[in-house]
Amino acid sequence: MAPPGGAGHRLPEDVGKRAPESAVPVLPTCRERKPVGGATSRRGINRKRWPPSLRTMVEAADLLVRTLGECRIDSPLPGLLDRHGTTEHYVDEADRVLFDDTLAMVGERTGKPPSFEPGGPRRQIFFDPAKIRVGIVTCGGLCPGLNDVIRGLVLELTSHYGVSRIVGFRNGYRGLVARHGHDILELTPAGVQHINEHGGTILGTSRGNQDPVEIVDCLDHLGVNILFVIGGDGSMRGAQRIAQEITTRERRIAVVGVPKTIDNDIPWIGHSFGFQTAFGKATESIRAAHIEATAQPGGVGLVRLMGRQSGFIACYAALANNDADYVLIPEVPVDLDGFLPHLRRRVRERGHALVVVAEGAGQEYLAADGADASGNRLLGDFGIYLRGRVLSDFATAGQEINLKYIDPSYVIRSVPANPYDSVYCLRLAQAAVHAAMAGRTEMVVGSWRNRFVHVPIPLAVASRNQVDPGGDLWMSVLEATGQPTSFSIPDRAAA
């Protein structure tokens, strides 16, 4: 069935510019072809890092979610909804989830407080389940839980909504571009029954820009009414370009994202699926490095973990083991002239040390140019660089060292989801289906203050979730490791 025509709506173009409360947000028309994926920013949104002090830049209008039209079809899930109102465990569809959660933050506001639309099933839906076709695509790097999300989407669509036509696009956005020649995969409950037991994605994935015009051509040709995109911030910017092209053509096709980032760097969604599995797996490498370091005189364990611009995996993995003496992350500048003497003194006094470093830390010491296929800046390998500096510094000081370097990056991201993430993946998939069937579009699902919510894609890609050096997580890391807040001149002299 070809999707019917219809007009779309859009969000205000600038964060911080309020719209009248009665206004319905409408997307700007996309007049030029902009490639799907990559690191380009949304026109009108400043993608500079938003520190916590600028949280008030997010206003009520920025959290409005686009809809394709009025919901007029009775939901096939009335039994789940009739007895519900808002409680401490459930938010009714007519209610909202507050963005701010302290008296001080609420007190800073003037005017209507910002709030999210809650996730969950609706009493009325937009699409007729018997007449639609659904597409699913996975994009970007691997992450634990991708197959769980695919399985959750298929089971929710078929078992509860009665949707019978679901296709998977292979190898990321490339699978939606005819000239690449990828076939599509029919997805059925039987076909996805056990895929959650395996890492990776049965659909395959890829990085790189694709033309949204060609992608929407594919959706039109196949009669796809809903597209689920499972991917990171670059993939979500691609989904936004697709939604804008759909609006230009006046089609009624919903584009809903399930955000995937092993680094946990997408904001306003609580945390990403797969993150708990990732840092849990990373603890095994930290434990091994600690055992190696304590087994030999002058033992130093150095573990490099994933985290391009956000050091969450390094922080949580280090806290889970509580064996690390130092944690180096991208958000906190590394002073090697102070760190190296401090490390030598630590080994001299206690016989060993363990250092955990995120891949994006210390880039100020490296000269890396260029970008990958998705437009992400290429990083220098600070783990290897730090290894060389540590060995050289100990040699210069005439101090014994036995250093073991461990990099488990690809092992971490390719494993199946742990039980917690499996549950979270399923619930995110259910929330995504409910949103799409109700005609929501250009949005992602997430969990805010333990409530499932709808987050507009322009807001989700306008900033980056990072470890706050002034926040309680980093404070916990400093308490657990005993490392100083900075490596001062006296530390260098003492070593």
At a glance:
This protein has 495 residues and is of the alpha/beta class. Helices cover 32% and strands 15% of the residues.
Q: Could you tell me the radius of gyration in angstroms?
A: 24 Å
Total discrete domains:
2
User: What is the fold named in CATH at topology level of the largest domain?
Assistant: Rossmann fold
Share of residues in helices: 25-40%
Poorly predicted regions are 1-33, 39-54
Question: Can you offer a commentary on this structure?
Answer:
This protein is α/β, with parallel strands linked by helices and 495 residues long. It folds into 2 domains: 52-273 and 417-460, 3-Layer(aba) Sandwich (Rossmann fold); 276-412 and 470-494, Rossmann fold, CATH 3.40.50.460. Helices cover 32% and strands 15% of the residues. It contains 14 helices and 17 strands. The protein has helices at 78-81, 103-107, 146-159, 212-222, 233-248, 275-295, 312-321, 336-350, 382-397, 409-413, 419-437, 457-460, 472-481, 489-494; strands at residues 66-67, 73-74, 97-98, 115-118, 124-125, 134-138, 166-169, 184-186, 226-231, 254-259, 299-305, 326-328, 352-358, 402-406, 440-441, 443-448, 451-456. Strands 3-4-17-16-10-9-6-7-8 form a 9-stranded mixed beta sheet, with helices on both faces. The radius of gyration is 24 Å and the shape is elongated. The N and C termini lie far apart (73 Å). Mean pLDDT is 88; it is low at 1-33 and 39-54.
